[in-house]
Amino acid sequence: MKRKGLLWFFFLIGIVSTSACSMFNKTKSEFETVNSDKTVESSSSMASAKEKEERYNELSRNANSPKIIEHSKQFNQDISFVAKVEGEPKQIESKDETLNGQWYISIFLMRNRATPIYLNLSDIKKETWPKNGDILRITGTTIGYLYTSYKNERVDLLDIKAKKIKTLTPKNTDVPKSSTIETDQYRVEITETDTLLDAFGESSLVIYYNFKNKKESASIPPLRTYFFFSQKNEYLKNTILGDLDRLNPKALNRDPLEPDGEMLYYETFKLLNEETPIHLAVYDDEYNLLNTLEIAVPAKK
């Protein structure tokens, strides 16, 4: 199989990350001119937010289904995005001499922290290679996918060739502390909490929240994407309730919501204990901290 114009198929050895889940006084004409400028600026901002959403959404889809990357408009195109590094650079072994010895590192999108993307660092100066935990602004080209085996199963990994990388320090100061979080894409208002037993007989936290979908297409709530609930610096894991009859019957769990729709939802998390308050941190796609909140564990009813 020729390399040019086709996906790259080769066997990748030993680089699958094990920590994928392991963050006014004016004239009328003056006023009209200023107002027009503001309208243009607002429209530009909306277009930019929409373009960013589409870019990260498609990149996440490609990470989940890398074998069909050739059908994506991102295939063989330069893209710019932010991701977090997990692990250290490693060399691959391949029967293809043109690929053997290439250096890769695993990176994760904020909206898809369970699926690694493999970043080829071979064209980047070694002294500038990233370290574990770095947040990177990456300019690169989606060139295909890699495949390997892990725990007796095949794993397909999106392959991006890095052209330029820059280590970022995401915004994390002067952050609001609010029960309402609003972006260009959604509004979430935490309205109530409860403590119930999950299906395993252990204490779990129930978060009730109003979700407004501000996208132009149907969308599920962002709590599993950008919202991190923790106790003592350990992230809480989702769980399944044992008795659904004790839930608010009007609350949904994961159902998609139409554009401009707003409904009550719930999410459940396994508690580490019933004394330590819960810390909520909310991020955007580029790992900027948008909101924090401390939530007391409610007493069992």
Describe this structure in words.
- This protein is mainly β.
- It is 12% helix and 39% strand.
- It contains 1 helix and 13 strands, in the order H-E-E-E-E-E-E-E-E-E-E-E-E-E.
- The longest helix has 37 residues.
- The chain is elongated, with a radius of gyration of 22 Å.
- The N terminus is likely disordered.
- Pfam families: DUF5067.
- It comes from Enterococcus ureasiticus.
- This is DUF5067 domain-containing protein.
Lateral strand order in the biggest sheet: 1-2-3-5-4
SSE pattern, N- to C-terminal: HEEEEEEEEEEEEE
Low-pLDDT parts are: 1-43
Overall outline: elongated
Mean pLDDT: 86
N- and C-termini, Cα separation? 65 Å
Largest sheet data: 5 strands, mixed, barrel
CATH superfamily of the largest domain: Nucleic acid-binding proteins
User: Tally of extended strands?
Assistant: 13
Examine the secondary-structure arrangement and name the CATH architecture of the largest domain: Beta Barrel
As a percent range, the share of strand residues is: 35-45%
Q: Report helical residue fraction.
A: 10-25%
Number of helices: 1
Give the CATH class of the largest domain.
Answer: Mainly Beta
Backbone CA Rg: 22 Å
Which structural class should the secondary elements be placed in? mainly beta
Tally of separate domains: 2
Q: According to CATH, what is the topology of the largest domain? A: OB fold (Dihydrolipoamide Acetyltransferase, E2P)
